[in-house]
Amino acid sequence: MTESKNRPDFYISADVETDGPVPGRFSLLSFGLTVVGTFNANVFKPWTEPDRTFYRELKPISDNYQEEALEVNGLDRERLMIEGEDPQEAMTAAAEWVKARSDGYRPILVAYPVAFDWAFLYWYFESFAEGGSPFGHSSCLDIRTLYQAVAGTVFDRSGKSAMPAFLRPASPHTHNALDDAIEQGELFANLMGWAIRRRAHVRQTERAGDTEPAWLMPHITPIA
Length: 224
Known about the structure:
By secondary structure, the chain is an alpha/beta fold. The chain has a single domain, classed as Nucleotidyltransferase, domain 5 (2-Layer Sandwich), CATH 3.30.420. 38% of the residues lie in helices and 17% in strands. It has six helices and six strands. Helix 4 links the parallel strand 5 and strand 6. The longest helix is centred in the C-terminal third of the chain and has 31 residues.
């Protein structure tokens, strides 16, 4: 394997605020990024270096918008038409920021849910940033999916409200893109710590001679 295939993960939490459901027809109005930490398959290390956040507000790229989307994020679309940053400048700066901090690592975008944030950010990076997406075409993780897999539950029971209190972030969810990226980053860090502890318990159980970890047994349906 080449060296690039052995890079530790470099997790960046992202959140977007938009004026509609899909990129291109609608616009990305703001986005926030924050470095969460690194993982080398054994140790998750929270990121403590300075300059760990990035935030931009952008000029809309079309005349289309949904009033209900603006009511949620509270952004003034008319103001952004005048004061918002040009998407090419914003996305190029964001891509360079990601690359500068993740040198030697594989940058991974994490979000809750990742599908919406990734759709806008990937489209904008590929459309406007010099060099395209710093996350490639698929380097992303969904926080909700991580919880569902570790908890062994169904999708309907994997929302934030269903998560135990010790996993939930202390930071508020404000619909400011940077605030929410920080909040979701805390949730992801808590989940990673929990997943690693669960893995250690599984390995200890396996060394004791059990064929399946005890916590998993109630979730297994025997095959006839």
